[in-house]
């Protein structure tokens, strides 16, 4: 493995505990959308997380349309996207918390000045900025190094499409092997892996040891090089990637 000079951080449930809050709002709107199209199915936030974690609302709506075989006119689609963004941002600004230990590790790696730091998210740019500002992590990232699959590309997309990681690499002027990505979801990990970027899987935001172990296995099977159960394992995982090894950091007792 070559020298790592850039670290790409996913935002939702990797840096900021935002998924539960976001999916509450998503469920309200997804159910409204289904009702408007005479589809009897309804979702809770928890069900949406299970089925669509790592996808942005735009990607989720595309998936719902494919699943239930209906089509939303483009102008209506964009109204739903904006409405969801507003609802989620309001919830995040009121209640968002950092992932346990994430801010402390960001502080260390920022002060080292050894790596460039960027955020690469599926979520809308406004939402990502609202999240990291609320928890005080915005000071670690330049504004032009916050990348959103929903907002930063000529054509909006969502992870697992690698487009946002390829875009981020181009903007920071790095090759895939010079970067590492920290991801907590299947779609996020796939997005980075498809762009050729080595992945550290973070499973600490999942509830329950069994779920964490299951996700660790899933993300390792996809090609993640290292799994961290706690942010305190970050430096170990980074070292593992730099040394070209693959390992599963066991949960800290």
Automatic annotation (TrEMBL):
InterPro entries: Beta-PGM-like, HAD-like_sf, HAD-SF_hydro_IA, HAD_2, HAD_sf, PGP-like_dom2
Swiss-Prot/TrEMBL cofactor(s): Mg(2+)
A molecular-function term among this protein's GO annotations: phosphatase activity
Keywords attached to this entry: Hydrolase, Magnesium, Metal-binding
Official protein name in the record: HAD-superfamily hydrolase subfamily IA variant 3
Signal peptide: none
